[in-house]
Amino acid sequence: MKKYARITGTGSYLPTKVVTNFDLEKTLDTSDEWITARTGIKERRIVTGQNTCDLALEASIKALSMAKIEPEEIDLIILSTTTPDKIFPATATMLQNRLGASCPAFDLQAVCAGFVFALTTAQQYIENGSAKNILVVGSETMSKIVDWSDRSTAILFADGAGAVVLSADNTTGIKHSKLFSDGSYLSSLHVNNNGIDELGTIQMEGNEVFKIAVNRLSDLAEETLNECNMSSEDLTWMVPHQANIRIIKAVAKRIKLPMEKVIQTLDKHGNTSAASIPLALDVGVRDGRIKKGDTLLFEGIGGGFSWGSVLLEY
Ligand code: ACO
């Protein structure tokens, strides 16, 4: 019998420190009005002393609790992050130890597309029968690679974590997934370190990234719906990567999806890279908007560039 990969638990965690646009006005030549109009972001959370694994742990505990899964029942942990705590071991391995799990664990790096890449990878393990329960996490401390004197990036990125438990199901779950990468875009969005002896900071050609994101994500949403023989009317919710409200609106308009069917957390979370989709998902699940049986579309695009979508029945 075919096995489906179904989300059975969600969890998220945000650091407690809130940095508002008004706070940024004090250190940067910017304004709340400009940031709100151009991005939709009003505030973001920034770590004080915590690392990526600390955030991942809190989100994971909540997802496991919702799924009613004990750490020893997890068959695999995939943690998507751009900001691992160490060069090695993988942050996922540190998470495995802190959770008290004993399964294989690895990190996956696809920047803001990381969660859809991790979910699609986990889907393969469930569908081929080699895992029953997989913990998929997106966790980031993007504040550590932001140049806080650069107003074009410092206003965007933020910290947080989201997690899901993906479990084998006989009837429904992920229906479709699609991934792409094109490394020729490196200069549009990258970190400027020259090797592992330096950390570097995010460098972005904002206008260029904006256009690429709108085009790639719109094409992807259309292709995904076509390949599933669906229209946007069949979607209950789109849960997009939270990068810029204007990107989200442009994609929704192109596929004729009303904004009332889009989960938005950008105003409060900013761009948390690999954490943004599972964070938004958890918000929608816990406030009761997303219900069992709903059809969801996730899609994200990230640095230099990777992008992808997952369509599923929740
Ligand atoms: N405050 C005030 N003014 C600013 C700021 C700021 N924070 N940042 C830039 N400006 C200025 C620029 O200097 C420019 O001034 P000029 O006209 O005198 O030269 C003016 O505002 C317009 O700049 P643009 O870059 O054209 O502004 P734009 O409308 O494109 O908005 C933004 C910039 C918000 C960065 C937008 O391009 C964007 O969102 N791009 C996509 C970024 C993104 O989503 N990145 C992540 C996606 S992938 C991932 O998540 C890794």
What does this 3D model show about the protein?
The structure is a single chain. This protein is α/β, with parallel strands linked by helices. It has two domains: 4-169, 3-Layer(aba) Sandwich (Peroxisomal Thiolase, Chain A, domain 1), CATH 3.40.47.10; 174-313, Peroxisomal Thiolase, Chain A, domain 1. 33% of the residues lie in helices and 25% in strands. The chain contains ten helices and 13 strands. The chain has helices at 21-25, 32-39, 52-67, 91-99, 114-127, 151-154, 206-227, 245-254, 266-269, 276-286, and strands spanning 4-13, 18-20, 43-45, 76-80, 105-108, 133-141, 159-169, 174-181, 189-191, 202-204, 237-240, 295-302, 306-313. α3 (52-67) packs across α4 (91-99) and α7 runs parallel beside α8. The longest helix has 22 residues, at 206-227. It binds acetyl coenzyme *A. Acetyl coenzyme *A binds next to α2, α6, α7 and β12. Acetyl coenzyme *A binds at residues 30, 34-35, 38-39, 111-112, 151-152, 155-156, 189, 204, 206-207, 209-210, 213, 243-244, 247, 271, 273, 301-303. It comes from Candidatus Pseudothioglobus singularis PS1. Residues 106-183 form the Beta-ketoacyl-[acyl-carrier-protein] synthase III N-terminal domain. The active site is at residues 112, 241, 271.
